[in-house]
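User: I need a structural model of FAD-binding domain-containing protein from Aspergillus chevalieri for a docking pre-check later this week. Nothing fancy, just the predicted structure tokens so I can convert them on my end. Input:
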Amino acid sequence: MVMASLRRLSTQMNRHTVRSEYLISCDGGSSRVRKRAGIKMIGEQMPARFYLVHFRSQELAEKLTFGLGKLPPGTKIDPREVVYRILDGKFKIDEVPVHSKWTLNFSIVEQYHTDSLRVLLAGDAAHRIARHGGYGMNTGVMDALDLGCRLAALHKGYGKEFLL
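Assistant: Understood. Predicted structure tokens for FAD-binding domain-containing protein:
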């Protein structure tokens, strides 16, 4: 049996305890669950840092492009100016819902579960890869689907815990 204590991050209140047979950690590359379970990641950070801007522009609705630019570390960034520079021009940006800086990581856990096989890791909690395209989400979804199938088979008696 696994016990997890949950709380609302915005208020640090409303603590709730959940008990279950298994806990699947899908809490990202900086996984608290992985760290608490003592599972180490092996691999390295790449020296490159990236800046991601998601924006909406009705004016550019018909135009698709991909741009790259270099930004020195510590640069204060205006996401709209980055978009204008990379796409070579000014146009109306209706919204910038997401913008973030990130460092490329290539790492994987030493093992995908605790020795008890009760805490299992998936997605970025288990492996960090280049975020281009699906931002790692594709492998996270595949991990969750795979673990779901394995847990269902185990629950129905089709195999032993070696499936995990």
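Before docking, keep this in mind: The chain is about 20% helix and 35% strand.
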